[in-house]
Amino acid sequence: MAILGKNKILPLLEKSKGSSGHRLLKFIARCLPRYERCTCKECEVLSGIFGNAFWHENVSPALHHWLNTESATKLPMSAFPHLRRICNSGYIVDSNGNNSFLIHPERMAISTLYISGGRSLLVTPETSYLANKYMKLHQPGFRHERAVVDGFGHSDLLIGEKSHEKVFPHIISHIRLAEQEGNDLTPRKKDSKEALDWGDDPYREYGDFGCWIFALAITFFFLLLHVLFW
Ligand SMILES: [Zn+2]
User: Fold this and answer.
1) ipTM (interface predicted TM)
2) What are the domain boundaries of the chain?
3) Signal peptide span per the entry (predicted)?
């Protein structure tokens, strides 16, 4: 962060002007190792900072071009100290490092769906395994489900060429079932038992243990989806 100076917004477009600190950070980002390399310099900077977020073969050239020339042209870096605290903690914390969220599961009284990519990238399926158990344990009156979709990594779950065939049906099905069940808050015996069963994740072979901030991020995404469709 100190490299950036006062301006914490990193311009990503190759043609954009930035300070010497910005250029140095982008150079370092391009040099960092990662799963997949790309011929697009903007993509190389972004994946150097975050890690690869999608498998390139899963997204169309048109979408890849749009992502790197129109969608992600600037990257605000000021959130990274917060992200660092979360990663170092191993669970979600507030910007001061306090455990302010997981101690209040009663605030998440809603159905949730977790979708992980089966071809691990950036995060592992175990993130959704843990988040799903957390919600089944603390909100047993709501439907909580999890799917691991083969061939996908992370953001390609939502932006992939075949997402509408392989991923979106899980979302539609979950919304339908949650709507059908309505406000029946009777705790599910099966879910309660599953939540307390800390056996191995059946999808464990897909990846190693990881931090579950991303699973919670996806949780909040689907909470939002659910609110929109409720
Ligand atoms: Zn790329």
Assistant:
1) 0.99
2) 2-78, 89-229
3) none
